[in-house]
């Protein structure tokens, strides 16, 4: 049978969701010394669309390469590796279920894709990312001895979103924290425009020019839109983001009556929960370690090392 072993006390952090739906029971981690004969045991990850299962650390290499620019500082890449490894193990129940290589889970690039993307930079980028993987090999994030749902996103609006603010589910380790350095991210601010006809084609109600003056936006504690109300019609911020294909739920809009166009401005990129990738890069560039980055974005967690063995 499978025996999951934890190496005692690699890091302890007493710092300070929405949990994406995972159809498995929680596996409580038991601490146990690793035996020499267990050294070659591996966890394999089944990625949808891939013909064969992939060793965990090889999979994490492909995730970090897809999810974070290789130009980022190594400490940011290491933080991403630990978060991605944790997320993968929780989502797949330690390799027992497949995971999709999409933004709804984690994007994954195989070696062929990495070579195509990086071209002449492949060897240097690959070396840097593999080093980040090796330096964090097996490390995962735990809360109360259980894997956390280690959500991450590109860029916050200056504050990360809490699990409660995102889904109404309170998770102690996913609280809203400051991430002001995200304002330097190229993805921090965006603007979209719609003709009034394009706008009305997306909604179940037909907007008139005066509706833009009477619409009400309710914000949550992180400054994102909790709900939008127009008369008796109400949408959540997440519903509007999906409807309009916006980068985030921190949005506001206006209507130019002379051009008959709707302008929507947004701040941040992604759901905003957990680690901000550009925030992690800013912290790393200022000298923070991967441990400090993870301690900032995930509350009351500890880092330990996991290995799997077949008995």
TrEMBL record:
One Pfam family, short name please? SpoIID
Give residue ranges for domain Sporulation stage II protein D amidase enhancer LytB N-terminal: 51-143
Cross-referenced InterPro entries, in alphabetical order? Bact_Sporulation_Assoc (IPR051922), SpoIID/LytB (IPR013486), SpoIID/LytB_N (IPR013693), Spore_II_D_firmicutes (IPR014225)
**What is the name of this protein?**
Stage II sporulation protein D
Instruction: Give the source species.
Output: Lysinibacillus contaminans
At the highest ranks, the source species' classification is: Bacteria, Bacillati, Bacillota, Bacilli, Bacillales
